[in-house]
Design a protein that fits this description.
This is Peroxidase. It is an enzyme of class 1 (oxidoreductase). Keywords: Calcium, Disulfide bond, Heme, Hydrogen peroxide, Iron, Metal-binding, Oxidoreductase, Peroxidase, Secreted, Signal. Pfam families: peroxidase. One of its GO terms (molecular function) is heme binding. This protein is mainly alpha-helical and 319 residues long. It folds into two domains: 134 residues, Orthogonal Bundle (Peroxidase, domain 1), CATH 1.10.520.10; 133 residues, Peroxidase, domain 2. Helices cover 44% and strands 4% of the residues. The protein has a two-stranded antiparallel ribbon with strand order 1-4. A two-stranded antiparallel ribbon has the order 2-3. Strand 2 and strand 3 form a beta hairpin.
Length: 319
């Protein structure tokens, strides 16, 4: 009964934030659209277990710049993809693969923006997260500028106030900030994204900058993996415990001072968010219910509908 009530709440919550988006938008024009996306995500994730986290990150990088309009997919000089902050973003080939199939069955019908949102939704469920019905009907944007990226993407070195300001400009609350940060329960990160937590000594070794926010044993492990002689392309798991499972372990890690990024650690060290972190660490159902709500809000950021934008034939180029 509690599960049913939660799903009903999510449905009405989604309807209240979806704007012009509609559930089953492609019911008549492309009935198999969501199934095609799901099958593509499932098959590629089976071949490459890193895909779900890449698709979730792709959604964030799309929606936070120009809104959820697939602007991050556009290729070319000075597009969003060309900015260094997007060089490690992956999952593009999965979206293009789904798009190619959809163009065979339903030419010029399903937007790349919807594919990204659906793929991220399916990716989370595939690795253990909740199933979330989401409305569709997004249109693809026609503007993609590298100059828009840095001012909109959250940096891993951000303070709490920095993150609050960034999220608020997208219509996302403090609670959304804490919940969506839980996406770090899956995926990996390059050492450069958290190198600011260490300082390099004269002998070439590293030491922790702040022992109060990062567990020393965990910090030593990270420093060994990311030493100056290591391959600069080396990555570590965002979640050192259950890196391939979408669960609430991320919040348990924060309680143990094992948040990988500075932007993770501030959540447990700030009075505005520490209690919620504790609640989420102790109740996975609470995390999943809140994730459904915050995820829906994320996929609604800056959407283009109706006569806005276009439906691209190829996600990499505008029509």
């Amino acid at each position: 009964m509690d599960t049913i009530r939660a799903l009903v709440f999510v449905f009405f919550f989604a309807a209240s934030v979806s704007g012009s988006l509609v559930y089953n938008f492609y019911e008549a024009s492309c009935p198999a659209a969501e199934l095609i996306v799901r099958n593509t995500v499932t098959s590629t994730s089976f071949q490459d277990p890193s895909i779900p986290a890449k698709l979730l990150r792709l959604l964030f990088h799309d929606c936070f710049v120009e809104g959820c309009d697939a602007s991050v997919m556009l290729e070319g000089n000075n597009t969003e993809q060309s900015d260094p902050a997007n060089r490690s973003v992956g999952g593009f080939s999965v979206i293009e693969s789904a798009k190619r199939v959809l163009e065979v069955y339903c030419p010029g019908t399903v937007s790349c923006a919807d594919i990204i949102a659906l793929a991220a939704r399916d990716a989370v469920e595939i690795v253990g997260g909740p199933m979330i019905p989401i409305p569709t009907g997004r249109r693809d944007g026609m503007v993609s500028l590298a100059s828009n990226v840095r001012s909109n993407i959250v940096d891993t070195s951000f303070t709490m106030d920095d993150m609050i300001n960034h999220f608020s400009t997208k219509g996302l609350s403090l609670v959304d900030l804490v919940i969506l940060s839980g996406g770090h329960t899956i995926g990996t990160a390059h050492c450069s994204s958290f190198r600011n937590r260490f300082k390099e000594e004269s002998n070439g070794k590293f030491s922790l900058i702040d022992n109060n926010t990062l567990d020393s044993t965990y910090g030593d492990e990270l420093m060994r993996k990311c030493s100056s002689v290591a391959n600069p392309s080396v990555t570590v798991n965002n979640d050192p415990q259950t890196s391939m499972l979408f669960d609430n372990q991320y919040y348990k890690n924060l309680l143990s001072n094992k948040g990988l990024f500075q932007s993770d650690s501030v959540l447990i060290n700030d009075d505005r968010t520490s209690k919620l972190v504790g609640d989420l660490a102790n109740d996975q159902d609470l995390f999943f219910q809140n994730w459904a709500q915050s995820f829906l809000k994320l996929t609604n950021v800056g959407v283009k509908t109706g006569d806005e934008g276009e439906v691209r034939v190829s996600c990499a180029t505008s029509n």
